[in-house]
Specification:
This protein is α/β, with parallel strands linked by helices. The protein contains eleven helices and 13 strands. Helix content is 41%, strand content 17%. Helix 1 links the parallel strand 1 and strand 2. The chain is globular, with a radius of gyration of 19 Å.
């Protein structure tokens, strides 16, 4: 298959493209920034086998050019997004442009080019739901999303649903990722809690741990293997939770990180529950296990150690 991965230089997009290539797919990528390996348009200097194009998916002309010049594509994985609840509050302009306008552009181009779409959503869409998070919960209960990031991703899911109803020949799948972490996710202030805690422990920086919050942390290679399997069992209209059965509180995560790094536990400050944040995210992942062969091969303890060892090499 010929596959386009948007957000190809991101944490998930980069590993996903590598796995797809190992499975003998032809993969092209696009991402927001200039970097080595880029195919130019007026300037074409790259002679590498693995190439990508700079593209802001919120700009119709740019994503149209990628699809026209480097396609036709059988499948597009839309990993490109502004990620994270606090990033979405501080940079809401980019969030709504990239996540909502960007997806709309891709859906309009799907009308023309008829590629299959695999779109990345998030566990944040489950908002204030307090029980086990199964894919069909959204059809049974009125859920209140709790931040702009969650709202933008739920808007995406409705965009895709409406698009499919208007044009049934356009085929799409949605994946909701649960706290994916691992090598490749280097620190900035808006990264996942796993990445932030690892970085702070290694650098001797303080952290705040909100008590009573529970998550399902998913190691990146396990997540990506399931994502790559969608190309082999593409079922239009499906929504998949891709998340770990390793359900833990945030205090436990901090404890594992601090134990492995031997950092000063005085750096950890415990606080009461964070406002407007989902308390418990417990995933029902049976559908992804059955149809995508999702399998956990890395424990939380092992995954944290692998992440820290990788991060040590990146810190100067």
């Amino acid at each position: 298959m010929k596959i386009l991965v948007t957000g190809v230089n991101g944490v998930v997009g980069k590993l996903l493209s590598e796995v797809l290539k190992k499975r003998k797919h032809s993969v092209f990528g696009c991402d927001l920034y200039h970097s080595s390996g880029q195919v130019g348009y007026s300037q074409r200097l790259s002679h590498e086998d693995s190439v990508y194009s700079r593209c802001d998916i919120s700009k119709y002309r740019q994503i149209e050019r990628v699809i026209k010049e480097h396609g036709p594509f059988d499948v597009i994985y839309n990993c490109a997004a502004e990620f994270g609840r606090w990033n979405g509050e501080d940079y809401f302009e980019q969030l709504w442009d990239t996540n909502v306008k960007g997806l709309k552009n891709i859906l309009l181009l799907q009308e023309i080019h008829k590629f299959k779409l695999i779109h990345f959503s998030t566990s944040e869409v489950y908002g204030d739901f307090k029980d086990v998070m199964a894919e069909n919960i959204m059809d049974k209960f009125e859920i209140k999303q709790m931040n702009d990031y969650a709202l933008s991703k739920w808007t995406n899911e409705i965009q895709i649903r409406n698009h499919s109803l208007m044009s049934p020949e356009n085929k799409s799948v949605i994946v909701r990722l649960f706290n994916t972490y691992g090598p490749g996710e280097f620190y900035h202030p808006y990264r996942s809690v796993n990445s932030k805690f690892c970085f702070h422990a290694l650098k001797g920086l303080p952290i705040e741990v909100f008590k009573g919050h529970f998550r399902s942390s998913t190691f990146i290679s396990d997540c990506v293997d399931a994502l790559a399997n969608i190309t082999e069992n593409f079922i239009p209209g499906r929504v998949y939770n891709i998340g770990s059965d390793q359900f833990h509180d945030i205090e436990t995560l901090a404890g594992i990180i601090w134990e492995y790094t031997k950092s000063d536990k005085k750096l950890i400050k415990f606080k009461e529950s964070e406002k407007m944040t989902t308390i418990t995210k417990k995933v029902n992942n049976e559908l992804s296990k059955t149809e995508l062969k999702f399998k956990e091969t890395v424990s939380l303890e092992e995954g944290v150690k692998i992440t820290i060892d990788w991060m040590k090499k990146k810190i100067k």
